[in-house]
Design a protein that fits this description.
Elements: H1 3-19, H2 24-32, H3 38-50, H4 56-69, H5 74-83, H6 88-98, H7 102-113, H8 123-135, H9 140-153
């Protein structure tokens, strides 16, 4: 790989990072699509990290906050983070730092979607609501709590 190609790849990496944050894993994947020189890619990522352009802790914190604002639960957050190249331990560290009440968060997500009460004997409706909440990443205890609080509030 000559100097001109290296400079072009370096500009590409800076351009990517100027648009949004990437984890090291995702940036490495993007750079591999443009170049096969593994050593240069690792040096480029180290260079970006030394300048503060790539920071996995910062990326993880932003990602976790964004997903929580969307109303997602802990299980969904952990599963989606894996796809973004974030380590599970790193996500759990961010979550512990935020001290989230998952039961209250589940209530907010439930009430945002379902603002009307349902008949307790209508099991299809109850199952539908439970599936929605499971898909959002909440545990069954959190879902039951949210549904009970919503019934009491009506």
């Amino acid at each position: 790989m000559d100097d001109k190609e290296q400079a072009k790849l370096r500009r590409y990496a800076v351009w990517l990072l100027s648009r949004r944050d990437y984890s090291q894993t995702k940036l490495e994947h993007k750079l591999r699509s443009k170049c096969e020189d593994e050593q240069f890619i690792q040096n480029l990522i180290s260079w970006c990290e030394s300048l503060g352009y790539v920071d996995d802790d910062r990326f993880c914190a932003q990602y976790v906050r964004r997903q929580i604002e969307k109303g997602l639960g802990k299980q969904r957050l952990l599963a989606d983070a894996y796809g973004k190249g974030i380590d599970k331990k790193q996500v759990e560290k961010c979550l512990n730092g935020l001290e989230i009440d998952w039961y209250e968060h589940a209530c907010n997500a439930y009430n945002k979607k379902f603002f009307s009460a349902f008949d307790k004997k209508n099991y299809q409706e109850k199952a539908k609501r439970q599936r929605y909440m499971v898909g959002r990443g909440f545990g069954f205890d959190e879902i039951e709590y949210a549904m009970q609080v919503a019934q009491i509030g009506e």
